[in-house]
Design goal:
InterPro entries: P_Ac_Bu_trans, Phos_Acetyltrans/Butyryltrans, Phosphate_butyryltransferase, PTA_PTB. It is a single chain. The chain has 306 residues and is of the alpha/beta class. It has eleven helices and eleven strands. A six-stranded mixed β-sheet has the order 8-7-9-6-5-10, sandwiched between helices. Strand 7, helix 7 and strand 8 form a beta-alpha-beta unit. The longest helix has 19 residues. The radius of gyration is 19 Å and the shape is globular. The model has no long low-confidence stretch (mean pLDDT 95).
Length: 306
């Protein structure tokens, strides 16, 4: 497949490889139902709606959504039970993607990690924000802005491996990973720079495959050729990064939200590291972001089936 360079191209690609099936945990959520309906109309995804059937019907009726287009699994044992049933639809192979509805994140993840019916792989779960920023010729993948708070080096290795799989599913055969820090030199007093240097060496020695890593790099050196040239940085990654690997949740969360609120562009988000892509959106996310998140999951699931 060709490299997807915008989230508009992603939507077109998801239509080509879709529709794939999404299992929605606690689907009695208006915003999520609207996103799922948009994805269905676009030919990107179909859905299994798990939760209180009466509540799902009530919300769908208010939105003008015809439930005859969906399979509804009526589970009234509470949100934890509904989440587990939704997860089981994916682990059994009946659905390709899991999506969070009106369920507490803790209950949702407990179902995902269930030893018998869950989606464990032995890998770390991590979050990826996918940004299409006006003025750039490529998509940026930011990780981890939401799940792992202060990852140590082994966790960062897993986070990189997870996001590289996402980039591969977007047609980027060898994504360029910038291990970010506040500076571009190794400083023993700044632990993120030590981790970045270790990731680079592990990549060079074949311990982290499918990508090229450089770091530590400050953000400007990662995305701007001019800034990298000014600092005298000679690197395949500097100025050309696809993946922005942040040192901790604060840096990642602020960066991702700064892009959303200060820049023009489009955004999607996924949880990866499980047996299937997981769409876990926020209520503050726009309808477009929810649709693009489903499309991202479809792209990744389709790539995984090859």
């Amino acid at each position: 497949m060709k490299q997807l360079r915008s989230l508009t191209e992603l939507l077109d690609y998801a239509k080509e490889v879709g529709p794939l099936k999404v299992s929605v945990a606690c689907a009695e959520d208006a915003e999520v139902l609207e996103a799922v309906e948009e994805a269905r109309k676009a030919g990107i995804a179909e859905a299994i709606l798990v939760g209180n059937g009466e509540a799902i019907a009530s919300v769908a009726s208010k939105l003008g959504i015809d439930l005859s287009n969906y399979e509804v699994v009526d589970e009234r044992g509470g949100e934890a039970a509904a989440a587990l049933v939704a997860v089981e639809q994916v682990s059994s192979g009946r659905a390709h993607i899991l999506m969070k509805g009106m369920v507490k994140t803790a209950n949702f993840l407990k179902a995902v990690l269930n030893k018998e019916k869950g989606l464990r792989t032995g890998s770390l779960l991590s979050h990826v924000y996918i940004h299409d920023v006006e003025g750039y010729d490529r998509i940026f993948f930011i990780t981890d802005p939401a799940f792992n708070m202060y990852p140590d080096l082994p966790a960062k290795v897993s986070i990189v491996e997870n996001v590289v799989k996402v980039a591969h599913s977007f047609g980027i055969s060898c994504p360029k990973v910038a291990a970010l820090a506040a500076v571009e030199v190794v400083n023993p007093d700044m632990p993120p720079t030590l981790d970045a240097a270790a990731l680079v060496q592990m990549n060079r020695r074949g311990q982290i495959k499918g990508c090229v890593i450089d770091g530590p790099l400050a953000l400007d050196n990662a995305v701007s050729e001019e800034a990298a040239r000014h600092k005298g940085i000679v690197s395949d990654v500097a100025g050309h990064a696809d993946i922005l690997m942040v040192p901790d949740i604060e840096a990642g969360n602020m960066m991702a939200k700064a892009i959303i609120y200060f820049a023009k562009g489009k955004t999607a988000g996924l949880v990866v590291g499980a047996k299937a892509p997981i769409v876990l959106t926020s209520r503050s996310d726009s309808a477009e972001t929810k649709l693009l998140s489903i499309a991202s999951a479809v792209a990744m699931a389709a790539f995984g089936k090859k």
